Every structure is written in C-alpha cells, then in structure tokens.
Known about the structure:
The chain is an alpha/beta fold. It has helices at residues 3-26, 42-45, 71-86, 102-113, 127-133, 161-175, 190-204, 223-235, 249-257, 285-296, 325-340, 367-371; strands at residues 56-61, 90-95, 118-121, 141-145, 154-159, 180-185, 211-216, 240-243, 260-265, 276-282, 304-307, 314-317, 350-351, 357-359. The longest helix has 24 residues, at 3-26. It is globular.
Amino acid sequence: MTHLSKRALLSIAGWSTIAATAALVGCGKKAEEAAPAPAPDAASAAAPAPAKPDPLKVAFVYVGTIGDGGWTFAHDNARKALEKEFGDKITTSYIESVPEGADAERVFRDQAGQGAKLIFGTTFGYMEPILKVAPELKDVKFEHATGFKTAENVRTYDSRTYEGAYMAGIIAGAMTKSNTLGVVGSVPIPEVIRNINSFTLGAQSVNPKIKTKVVWVNEWLNPPKETEAATSLINGGADVLMQNTDSNAVLKTAEAKGKYAFGWDSDMTAYGPQAHLASSIINWAPYYIKATREALDGKWATGSAWWGVKEGAIDIVSISDKVPADIKAKVETVKAGLKDGSFSIWKGPIVGSDGKEVLKKDEVADDKFMSGITFYVKGVEGKVPGK
C-alpha cells in the first residue's frame, strides 16, 4: 500500500469515528474517547532517495592502436584499470589511430560533443590541437601526455622513461659483445634524446667502451620503418638494440637476426623470447586514477606531473635469465635508489658528444635541465637532427 493511500484511509477512519460519536451523544449516551490515529511509519515518512549522479565520461585519444604491444597498449591497460577502480562512477571510451594535427582537433571536439568531461590526449603531437580546442570547451578537462604547455583546463603529465632506459642500459652494457648499441629513435624531441642518452649512460656505468648508434624514423609508429632501422643498426655492428618507437618491430627484428633487444613501454617478451633481455614499462594507471578521482571530487586543477619509479609509473620487468646475477643486482640497487631518491642518473661529471662538460662533478640535473636536453652525451655517435 502506498503512503498516500494510507493517509486517505486514516482520514476516512477519523471522519467515521467523529460521525459515530456524534450519533451516540445525540441518543443521550456517553461517547467513548476515540483512539488517536496511528502515526505513519518512519519508512513512509522518509524523503525519497536523491537521484544517482550520471557517470563521468572519460575519453582517450590514441595515436596508435591498442594492439601495438607498446605505447598505446600501455595506455589502454591503464584505461581498463580505471574502469575497475571506479566501476559505475565512470564510463570510458577510446579512439585509435588519430594522427597528430588537424584531425585530432575534430576528434577532441567530437568526444566533448558526446559528453566526455575528462579527455586524455596520449601523444606529444596533440599539444597544439588540445590548446586550440580547450578555450572553446571550458567545461571539459584535458590531460595531455608528454606535453609542456598548460591552460586553465589543460594539464600535462609524463613518465620518466629515461629511468627505464638507464636500467636497460646497465643490462645492455653487460650483454654486448661488440661494445656497440643501437637505438631506433622516433622523433628528435628532448624526451627521446634524453632516453637515448640515459640508455648510453647506463651502459657506460658498467662498460666504459660503449658506443651508441641512432637511426631516426621520424614517426612514433611505423613497423616497416622500425624494422628497416633496426636492420641497419645490426648491419652497422650493433648487437643490442633499444627503441623509442611504439611497436614491437625492433624486438622482432632482433629475434630474427639473432641479436638482443628490449621491450619498450610494455612487456614485449612474447614478441622475441630469445632476443628479449628485459622490458622497460610504463604504468599509467596510478596517474589516471589520481586525475579521475580529482575530476570526480571537483578537485582537478591545471598543472604538470612527471612520474617515475618513485610513483610506480616506471619499472623494468621480465629480466632474462641470460643476464648475470651481479648485473640484475645492480639494476635492483639503482631501482631502489630511484625510488627513495638516493640515486640520480644525471649527476656530473657528464660530457656532451662535442667534448664539452654539461654537468660538473657532483652537480645533479634539475627537471628544467632534463626537459631541455637537445644534445647527445659522449659515446652517442652522429648529430641530433636539426642541430
């Protein structure tokens, strides 16, 4: 029975009692005192429950495919972790293979038009498109991966991939027979140059004879070009390869040619089990969970974040049994030092490839210095494109 029908019956019952009492008094008989109507129960009197808020719509824009086994695969794993963390408080969507440029603007506007209030743009080249659409979409919060420009509703985030590159370098320096390492570079921006240098510094920490060759493909994801670059490096004498590209092509090439290589961004062991020495991985989940929680709680604010081993964003995993125990131990010592802040990768003296000192003895690079690295360190052959 509903709350209103109870009240109606109580009202009828009350009027009936009054009528009966009046009739008895009219007959000269004393009326009995009418019992008070029972109060409605607490459940009936309670206010209706407030409406459940609509879920926050979170969108991800990917430069590659979730099947690349590397960069975009890592982002999508974090998206899935986000869904698991927040359940029905959020909904997520993603768009794959969105080129860097004008088409990205269209995609960002389209996602906002579909109700997305938190949008993650997951590649450096989305910086200008995001900055262009953000003023038009003030109610949308934009997160831009690896960028360096912010706005009122634009925040940047990045991972310290150079920490993983350094630890990979330690392993590479111990495993090379030719003392020549190879790196397949994507786009010559500070992020990538920093990784090449850090890989070289890590290798030189165990083998001062190390030289590093670089071949640039000028794209983030192009498996045929990555394969061609890896082959060129091997033909040039490199017997251990690293990449700063998004697919698994470099590791697969090393596997096919009997050389060593590393997984990058995600654990790539399965793509070249004999060639694979370790994988330097990015775990975007901790940052995505933090950003989404801030958006849900109304605490999101612009700014920049740069997370590494300390925050659980960078790790090196699946180290091969081929790697000597003392080298594995050194990697673990460096990892522990990065986690508690007792170890600095970029600590002087460090010399550039031109022979000039870039960091004095015991001088530790700050983030401003790290963000502006556009030079090779000693041991990296060739010149940075455009320099």
